[in-house]
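Q: Start with the shorter request: fold the first protein.
A: Done. Sequence, then structure:
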Amino acid sequence: MLLVGEKTTLAKASSNFASLRTVVPMSIVRQWQLKEGDHIDWSWEARNGEMVIVIKKVEHFGNQAGTNTQIDRKTRKTVKKN
């Protein structure tokens, strides 16, 4: 198993929400050829007392019927995107 890592700093995402943000390291941006507006799928699991995060570039954002969705910031519910 190849382990590669970088350290980033968390910052408050917005004064209206309790989430934090960080940068995507340039090595990941280059590897996946990411650009502004791309979507990333985050999943995680606990392994041996540590949280392991898996991130994947999302090629097709939306459900199987092809309808794009987004999260409503106020209600935190999934809504159809026009």
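Q: Next, the second protein, separately.
A: Sequence, then structure:
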Amino acid sequence: MVRPYEQGDDADALWALKEGFETGLGEGTGSEEKREQYDAKLTDDYRRQWLDWVARCVDEDDCVRVVERDGDLVGYAFVLPESMAFVWDAAVLNEIYVQPAYRGEGVADALMEEALAVARDQNLPLDRMVLDVDRKNERAQAFYERYGFEHWGEMVARDL
């Protein structure tokens, strides 16, 4: 069942999913150094800051959806609030994650449909949704292509 994230009640379970998202980024899509970087950021302080930020986003724009199975959260989608749409001139799918044991069961599809519905309700500069996906993550690439996502520019980064 897809439903809105409930602050307080769902915080610990959402954080556990976030840890899976972050460690998944570091494991299968890069070098050992990338994995270590993603693992190292998962501190108690980062947890507190991230959950506070999620709370502010949800207060502003009820933008996080979760999937619950047998009383446990097994996935989430996080669309940035409408106020942040001007960063990319579009809705931004910040994160979508499904626990590995529930992949291939339609959970990601349900989350994507909810994320698109959240985005459609936003007043956007451009009627589109954007996201960042690692080019080495072939499973994610195929999922987004199935939903009609196409390359739109190129993100580059550098260390600070």
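Q: Describe the second briefly.
A: The chain has one domain: 2-146. Helices lie at 11-28, 32-40, 44-61, 107-120, 138-146.
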